[in-house]
Amino acid sequence: MDVNQLMATAKALMTEGKGLLAMDESNPTCNKRFAALGIAQTPEARRAYRDLIVTTPGLGDFISGAILFDETLRQQTNAGISFVDALKKAGIIPGIKVDTGARDMAGFPGEKVTEGLDGLRPRLAEYAAMGARFAKWRAVITVGDGIPTWSCIEANAHALARYAALCQEAGLVPIVEPEVLMDGSHTLEQCLAATEKSQHALFHQLYQMRVDLRGVILKPNMVLPGKACPRQDPVDRVADVTVTCLLANVPAILPGVAFLSGGQSAELASQRLQAMNLRFQGRMPWALTFSYSRAIQQPALELWKGQPANIPAAQRALHQRAACNSAARRGVYNAAMEKHPGQS
Fold first, then answer.
1. pLDDT band, residue 337 (cuts 50/70/90)
2. Cα 161 to Cα 197: distance, rounded to the nearest angstrom
3. What distance in Å separates the CA atoms of residue 283 and residue 98, rounded to the nearest whole number?
4. Which member of 25, 111, 177, 179 is catalytic?
5. What gap in Å lies between CA 138 and CA 250, rounded to an integer?
6. CA-to-CA dists, residue 203 to 160, 312, 320, angstroms
7. Is residue 342 over pLDDT 50?
8. Strand 102-104 versus strand 112-114 pairing type
C-alpha cells in the first residue's frame, strides 16, 4: 500500500469546486430507469447513454471523479476510446463500484447486508490494472418499526471496513457509503439517530481493520425525513443537523465527504449542499461535496430518451446540473442557475 498515492488520489477527488458523478447503476437499475422512459434495455443502449455522459463538453470543469459499473469500465465511446481513457482525457478520475448488491439479512426482517467480499481481492487488482483509481461500496440502512438494529448496522460497517482495507491494499481509494434510506415515513430525528449510529460504527470498524483514514472518502446520506413523512424540514435545518452529525462522528483526518443524493430532487440536492457550505464555512475540517447520480443525470436522461438527435440537449442539461452542484460546493449557487439549459 502506497499511502502517499492514496492521499494524492483522495486530494484530487476533493479538488475545490468539484464533486463526483455516480454513473455506477447496475444493469437492472439502469434498465428500470430506461423502461420508465421507453428506452430499449440493451447493452448498446446503456453504452450509448454512458457515451453521452463521458463525452459531455466541459464536464471535467465540475467533476473530479466518475464511479463506473463493471460493464461500463469495459466499454468504449462511439469513437472507439475506452471510457476510462475518455474520462482521463477530460480530467476526470475513473472509479468503480465493487459491491454486488444488498441482500436480505437472515434473521432480521426488513434489513439488508451488502455482499461482494468473496473474490474481491483479484477483482480489485483487475480494476486497478484497467485504470480505476478508487472504488465504492454501498450499504443500505432502513428506518422503520424497530429498525435499524445494531446487528444490521454493525454487519454493514464490518463489510465496509473489510472492503476498504482490501481497496487500500490494491492502491485504490475506498469510498465508504453507509446510506440511511429516504424510503418511509420516519422523521428527521429518526434518520439522525440511525445516521449517527451508522457513522459511529463505521469509523470504529475502519480503525479495527487498520484502514488509513487519510486515503478514505465518506459518502453519506443527508439527514432527512422519510419521503412519506408529513413534516418535511426546511433546507437550513437539514443543513444544520447533517453537518452537526458529521462533526460529531467523522474524524477530522478524513480528506472529504461526498453526499449521495438518495432520491432527492435535483434542485433540493443542490440547495441543501449550498446551505451546508454556506452555514458551516470555515468550520469543517474536511471538504464537503457531492457524489450524485440521479440528481445530476435524471434531467439529461429524460431529455435523451434514447434518441441520438437529443444528445446535445441532454448534454447541456448534464453540464448544467454539474455546474449547479459545483456552485453549491463553493457556496455560490442560486436559483437563477436553474434556468433551462440552452436559454440565454
1. confident
2. 15
3. 33
4. 177
5. 17
6. 10, 43, 35
7. no
8. antiparallel
Q: Is 169 a catalytic residue?
A: no
How far apart CA 168 and CA 196 sit, in angstroms, is: 25
Contacts of 125 (CB under 8 A, 6+ apart): 170
Q: Answer yes or no: are the C-beta atoms of 319 and 266 closer than 8 Å.
A: no
As given in the structure block, the three cell numbers for residue 250 are 467523522
Q: Is 43 exposed, middle or buried (0-12, 13-18, 19+ CB in 10 A)?
A: exposed
Predicted confidence (pLDDT) at residue 125 exceeds the cutoff of 80: yes
Q: Is the peptide bond before 148 cis (omega within 30 degrees of 0)?
A: yes
Alpha carbons 276 and 177: distance in angstroms, whole number: 19
Position 341 confidence tier, pLDDT thresholds 50, 70, 90: low
Active site residue 177: yes
Read off the pLDDT of residues 61-73 as tens digits, 9 standing for 90 and up.
999 999 999 999 9
What residue ranges do the domains of the chain occupy? Answer: 3-338
10 Å CB burial of residue 194 (0-12, 13-18, 19+) is buried
Which of 97, 136, 197, 219 is catalytic? The answer is 219
pLDDT 10s digits, 96-116: 999 999 999 999 999 999 999
The strand ranges marked E within 181-300 are: 217-218, 256-259, 287-292
CATH architecture of structural domain 3-338: Alpha-Beta Barrel (3.20)
List C-alpha distances in Å: 64 to 58, 95, 183, 250, 313.
12, 11, 29, 22, 23
